[in-house]
Amino acid sequence: MIFSKTLIHWYSNNKRNLPWRETQEPYCIWLSEIILQQTQVKQGLPYYQAFVGKFPTVFDLAKADESDVLKLWQGLGYYSRARNLHASAKYVASELKGTFPDNYKDLLKLKGVGDYTASAIASICFNEVAAVVDGNVYRVLSRYFGVCTPINSTKGPKEFKALAQELIDKDNPAEFNQAIMEFGATQCKPKNPYCHICPLNNSCIAFNKNKIHELPVKIKSAKAKKKYFNFLVFVSEDGKTILEKREGKGIWQNLYQFPLIETKNELKIESFEKAVENHKLLNDMPFEYSLYNKELLVHKLSHQHLYTKFWIINTKQLPIEGVPVSKAQEFAVPILIGNFIEEFNF
């Protein structure tokens, strides 16, 4: 089909030089695909290089402590990806003796691997005719074919998957999949796509009907929830602070943070003492406090916005066992906490 051949030809002349394109090793392809979920190449590249450098094989990754994996992941967000990455590495290393599944169906059994990732690995590593559908592919297909079905509707993913599967080059699935993703990332971009030099513009419905900025269609998601976080940054006279490990399910599961007070509204400095008067760590203990950031720090996640303040708690000694402030940077923490630690410098 002209569409497929045109994309592959474009890719051969325009593809970026990326390290995971120099190999068909399943471990490297899997690692790159997990890192690049919800992440742009320019942000994910240094993380890929760091992971390959520290964990050159799946056995190395499997043997690592989860805290080391989370620390190396710090700043990428969506930390469940890192936990799933580690869990799958242990499964492949122990149960599969280090050999990755060689087909789409079995790749789906790996934790954190869905349709897109399984299709990418199966096609790139094992030449299976399994079409990828990610944000870039949605954009290219919806614009070129004028598909108005919302990509986040119940019907959307199935419709686009079927279309991509129909279009994929059966003789060269790996090259086609990489071509259409690259085309969406660098040519058919979300904003300001290069339509006038596009090799597909003559037959692109969105271009010819002036609907480039209307496609793909996406149903508006629910408004992000507001949460107010107040972190208690203890600093004792002997140079220690308190970092707590977040337990249970959640966005920062198994990461470390300063003791947290969550409030329904912004906590003002004049109401701080009342808000913490019954706090388990401050009860009946002399302390001095100050507000580090008078303006709220807003940390935006996909489903919630965290409005954050850091309260410095100076004490003679800590109420519980702490950690030397000099070692605070060694802990796996959310980027919000990491940025504070780096800036505050204790």
Automatic annotation (TrEMBL):
The keyword Magnesium does not apply. Keywords: 4Fe-4S, DNA damage, DNA repair, Glycosidase, Hydrolase, Iron, Iron-sulfur, Metal-binding. Binds 1 [4Fe-4S] cluster. CDD domains: ENDO3c, NUDIX_DNA_Glycosylase_C-MutY. It is an enzyme of class 3 (hydrolase). Its cofactor is [4Fe-4S] cluster. Signal peptide: none annotated. Its EC number is 3.2.2.31. Pfam families: HHH (PF00633), HhH-GPD (PF00730), NUDIX_4 (PF14815). It comes from the Bacteria. Residues 35-186 form the HhH-GPD domain. It catalyses: Hydrolyzes free adenine bases from 7,8-dihydro-8-oxoguanine:adenine mismatched double-stranded DNA, leaving an apurinic site. Belongs to the Nth/MutY family. Adenine glycosylase active on G-A mispairs. MutY also corrects error-prone DNA synthesis past GO lesions which are due to the oxidatively damaged form of guanine: 7,8-dihydro-8-oxoguanine (8-oxo-dGTP). This is Adenine DNA glycosylase. It comes from Algibacter aquimarinus. The gene is mutY.
